[in-house]
Amino acid sequence: MDRIDIKILNLLQKDNRISNQDLAEAVGLSPPACLKRVRKLRSQGIIMADVAIVNPEKVGHRINVIVEVEIERDQLDIYDQFSRKMNAAPEVSQCYQVTGEIDFVLVVLVPDIQAYEAFARRELASNPHLRKFRSLISLRREKFKTEISL
């Protein structure tokens, strides 16, 4: 990647609906050369997807819960099983395996506290390999961005 690729990525992260003509103009390339670079970034997996970011509150997901999960013991099969369950759970928008005292951090989006309680009972409290979990209910989102600094 060179500085032009980085500039293209930075612009696409801010607005992936920008026209190829405007993108090319912003980075100082001809439209065909710019399109070729964007296609290459996609084929290399650098650009993973083009998505629409939905406001969770506008679609009824008013509660954002950060959940710290501690698994009973360090076993890869148990970690893999937990990861598969979290990937299948519609309430879980993000799941990270982490280092330190806890094993996983989840971001859970639900419409209300009753929905979170149902999720916690079904997916967490019923898991025999889970030592403990801690729920942190977000009061408000102070910062959210999708782009990474390049």
Automatic annotation (TrEMBL):
Could you list this entry's UniProt keywords, alphabetically sorted: DNA-binding, Transcription, Transcription regulation
Gene Ontology cellular component list: cytosol
Task: Please give the biological process terms from Gene Ontology that the record holds.
Answer: regulation of DNA-templated transcription; response to amino acid
**Residue intervals of the HTH asnC-type domain:** 1-62
PROSITE patterns reported for this sequence: HTH_ASNC_1, HTH_ASNC_2
- Coiled-coil regions, chain positions: none
Q: Sorted alphabetically, which InterPro entries does this protein's record hold?
A: ArsR-like_HTH, AsnC-type_HTH_dom, Dimeric_a/b-barrel, Tscrpt_reg_AsnC-like, Tscrpt_reg_AsnC/Lrp_C, Tscrpt_reg_HTH_AsnC-type_CS, WH-like_DNA-bd_sf, WH_DNA-bd_sf
Q: Which domain of life is it from?
A: Bacteria
**What are the GO MF terms of this UniProt record?**
sequence-specific DNA binding
Q: Which SUPFAM superfamilies match?
A: Dimeric alpha+beta barrel, Winged helix' DNA-binding domain
Task: Tell me the PANTHER family matching this sequence.
Answer: LEUCINE-RESPONSIVE REGULATORY PROTEIN, TRANSCRIPTIONAL REGULATOR AZLB
UniProt protein name: ArsR family transcriptional regulator
- Species name for this entry? Oceanospirillum multiglobuliferum
